[in-house]
Amino acid sequence: MIYRLKNGNWEKVKLGIFFTLEGYEIMPGESWTQEIRLVYFDESTWNSYPLPPGRYKIIKEALGIGVEGKLTLEVEFEIRE
What we know:
Pfam families: Big_14. The protein has 81 residues and is mainly β. It contains no helices and 6 strands.
């Protein structure tokens, strides 16, 4: 999920895309990256537009094999003009 900071609160951004539940195996000490299309979806026009300038965060949940519960991964970033 992508959220935008607005008036001190994080608001969910309606995306023109969705995240899938594909499984990736990452061994200890390794890293992994994923490209995400930074657009929002305008339901009134059925079009996608670039995210406007502002403070954002992406939150994604991860599961571990042999580990109970979920790990919530989160990163904040800023889009500038």
